C-alpha cells in the first residue's frame, strides 16, 4: 500500500508526496503554509479520489508526467517517467491504493534516530 509523506521544504512550507508500495515518489503536492492545510488536502483527496483527473503531458526532454486535478484545482504534479506505460502504472497505483494509504509525518526537525545515536562513537 502507498503512503502520503508530509515533510517541510527548505523555505519552511509544507508539502506531501505520495509514494508507491515500493517507496518511489509518484507525485508531489503544491506548497502549504500550515501543516493542517496539508493534512486537510490529503483527507480531501482520499475522500474524492474517484473524481480526480490526470492530465498527461510529454516534456521537452521526452519524459512523461501528469498533473493531478481535483475539480478545476491543480492538486499535485507527478515525477518524470521514461515511458507512457510507467506513467500509467503510477496513475493505477494512486487509484488503487490512494484512498487507503496511511499518512506519515516527517515534518518536524527532530531526528528519528537521535536517541539511538547518543553515546555511540563514530568509526572512521
Automatic annotation (TrEMBL):
InterPro entries linked: YegP-like_sf
Gene3D superfamilies: 2.30.29.80
Domain of life: Bacteria
Name this protein carries in UniProt: DUF1508 domain-containing protein
Organism phylogeny: Bacteria, Pseudomonadati, Bacteroidota, Flavobacteriia, Flavobacteriales
